[in-house]
């Protein structure tokens, strides 16, 4: 019985450790940008050290800029926001 409880506590401990590790995960760097002009989608790799403020759509040649308060085109048009936002850091 005591052994059973010990195992259970150990299991919870392991589970919490795993959870902490997932919080420290690295940011996703692939984001698919959808052009608001023509709907063209393109998967791009985001830079981790800088924000991309301008993005040229390869289909309609429109130069995209972030919407409103967004720091970069990935936050506005991408499926995944930029790495600093994902990691809860202030953006450039
Ligand atoms: Zn376009």
Write out key terms for the chains shown.
92 residues; 4 strands; 3 helices; binds zinc ion; two-stranded antiparallel sheet; alpha+beta
Compact overview of the structure:
The chain is α+β, with helices and mostly antiparallel strands.
Would you mind describing this structure in some detail?
With 92 residues, this protein is an alpha+beta fold. The protein has a domain at 30-86. 34% of the residues lie in helices and 15% in strands. The protein contains three helices and four strands. It has helices spanning 2-23, 73-77, 83-86; strands spanning 30-34, 41-45, 55-56, 63-64. The protein has a two-stranded antiparallel sheet with strand order 1-2. A two-stranded antiparallel sheet has the order 3-4. Strand 1 (30-34) and strand 2 form a beta hairpin. The protein is elongated. Residues 35, 37-38, 40, 57, 59-60, 62 line the site of zinc ion.
């Amino acid at each position: 019985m005591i052994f059973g409880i010990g195992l259970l506590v150990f299991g919870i401990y392991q589970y919490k450790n795993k959870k902490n590790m997932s919080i420290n995960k690295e940011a996703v760097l692939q984001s698919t940008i959808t052009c608001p002009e023509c709907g063209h989608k393109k998967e791009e790799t985001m830079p981790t050290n800088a924000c991309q403020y301008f993005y040229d759509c390869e289909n309609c040649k429109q130069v995209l800029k972030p919407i409103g308060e967004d720091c970069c085109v990935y936050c506005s048009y991408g499926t995944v926001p930029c790495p600093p936002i994902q990691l809860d850091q202030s953006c450039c």
